[in-house]
Write a structure and sequence with these properties.
The chain has 415 residues and is an alpha/beta fold. The chain is 48% helix and 14% strand. It folds into 3 domains: 233 residues, HUPs (Rossmann fold, 3-Layer(aba) Sandwich), CATH 3.40.50.620; 76 residues, Tyrosyl-Transfer RNA Synthetase; 69 residues, RNA-binding S4 domain (Structural Genomics Hypothetical 15.5 Kd Protein In mrcA-pckA Intergenic Region, Chain A, Roll), CATH 3.10.290. InterPro entries: aa-tRNA-synth_I_CS (IPR001412), aa-tRNA-synth_Ic (IPR002305), Rossmann-like_a/b/a_fold (IPR014729), S4_RNA-bd (IPR002942), S4_RNA-bd_sf (IPR036986), Tyr-tRNA-ligase (IPR002307), Tyr-tRNA-ligase_bac-type (IPR024088), Tyr-tRNA-ligase_bac_2 (IPR024108). It comes from Noviherbaspirillum aridicola. Its EC number is 6.1.1.1.
Length: 415
């Protein structure tokens, strides 16, 4: 029997009070898995009895500088646990970023440079603080304990886990069978993430469902180091606006948490009526009973748009303000009626008369002239509210409002 098992055996099983049961229910809301629930219930009970808060860890590698709503699924859960009085550790993986997380990857992820990591990390916590209470959040960097390990320490740590166990990981297994290269440094990633849990003496670690293997490695390493193993909480991965792929900036299906209120509102109104309930479950702070009532009312014939508006306003208010949410609704309704929004960017161009394709490209409303002409073909381009159907149109000098699709506008002065 190892030291961690002794630790567990020596502790008497505590009764679960009403407040512990309530904390457990809050913890379970919207989660994919809570492992092992009975162990976590005992951690909560001991915390209540001793007055010692649990140490709850979330690690994020600063691979990109901006957070989107997909990231907030797990941050929301951290805030709930923070509100229950526990210590939240926001761990920036500045060391592990240099390895590159292989989770869900079918090729080796290029490691980031120190400069890229520092640049991305600068904005990470500021944005996460829109969800977490910064005054009650411990910020740590895993280079604090990973750098001092050195070569000797890394070898000793590697000796605690077998290659066979590492290769049980689904993405590694697929790559190995397909003959796709796996670099040795990628095999170290789960070990380094697991060692973070040892260094921080974590009681609970959170992550997306794609992180389950890494989180379990942390649990095993804690046992090796004589610590009580952490529990694991995995949150579902939020689908993007397309309702298919995981929300991602690279796929363009995201809602950034620092985007303008009107943009955020418009994007949320574009999700399907079915996907709306998934967003309610993972992003809304409304009681589950209220969300269930909304679903019943929609099933009984109430317009789902009413509930989508409530969801979009709740999220916009969270990251901006209640007034911004109300203004965003007014702006959205105005656009739906064919009106022009208030916050249209002003653009000055020259070269009249200018072909419609070049005009849309230079006004930054389309990425290329070919995309612009496609939008004209599809009837998605308007000048001062009038649909443009002629791809050969040359626009004369003047000031006018260009519109592409439902959400892209520019007030252009063409000289």
């Amino acid at each position: 029997m190892d030291a961690s098992q002794n630790l567990q055996t020596d502790k008497a099983v505590l009764p679960l009070t009403d407040s512990v049961q309530e904390a457990l229910a809050i913890t379970r809301r919207g989660v994919d898995e809570l492992l092992i629930e009975s162990e976590f219930a005992q951690k909560l009970a001991r915390s209540e009895q001793s007055g010692q808060p649990l140490r709850i860890k979330l690690g994020l590698d600063p691979t990109a500088p901006d957070l989107h709503l997909g990231h907030t699924v797990v941050l929301n859960k951290m805030r709930q646990l923070q509100n229950l009085g526990h210590t939240v550790i926001f761990l920036i993986g500045d060391f592990t970023s240099m390895i590159g997380d292989p989770s869900g990857r079918n090729v080796t992820r290029p490691p980031l440079t120190r400069e890229q990591i520092e640049e991305n990390a600068r904005t990470y916590f500021a944005q996460a603080s829109l969800v977490l209470d910064p005054a009650r959040t411990e910020i740590r960097y895993n280079s604090e304990w990973c750098d001092p390990l050195g070569a000797r320490g890394m070898i000793q740590l590697s000796a605690k886990y077998t290659v066979a166990r590492i290769l049980e990981r689904e993405d590694f297994t697929k790559r190995f069978k397909a003959g796709t290269p796996i670099s040795v440094h990628e095999l170290l990633y789960p070990l380094m993430q697991g060692y973070d849990s040892v260094a921080l003496r974590s009681d609970l670690e959170l992550g997306g469902t794609d992180q389950k293997f890494n989180l379990l490695v942390g649990r095993e390493l804690q046992k090796d180091y004589g610590q009580e193993p952490q529990c694991i909480l995995t949150m579902p991965l939020l689908e993007g606006l397309d309702g298919v792929e995981k929300m991602s900036k690279s796929k363009g299906n995201y809602v950034g948490i620092t985007e303008p209120a009107n943009t955020m509102f418009g994007k949320l109104m574009s999700i399907s009526d079915t996907m709306m309930w998934r967003y309610y479950e993972l992003l809304s702070f409304r009681p589950m009973e209220e969300i269930a009532r909304f679903r019943r009312e929609a099933d009984e014939g109430r317009n789902p748009r009413d509930f989508k508006v409530l969801l979009a306003q709740e999220i916009v208010a969270r990251f901006h303000s209640q007034k911004a949410a109300e203004d965003a609704l007014a702006d959205f309704n105005n656009r739906a009626r064919g009106g022009i929004p208030d916050d249209v960017p002003e653009v000055s161009l020259s070269g009249a008369p200018l072909g419609i394709g070049q005009l849309l490209k230079q006004a930054n409303l389309c990425a290329s002239t070919s995309e612009a002409l496609r939008m004209v073909e599809q009837g998605g381009v308007r000048i001062d509210g009038e649909t443009v159907s002629d791809k050969g149109l040359k626009v004369d000098a003047g000031t006018f409002v260009l519109q592409v699709g439902k959400r892209k506008f520019a007030r252009v002065t063409l000289g």
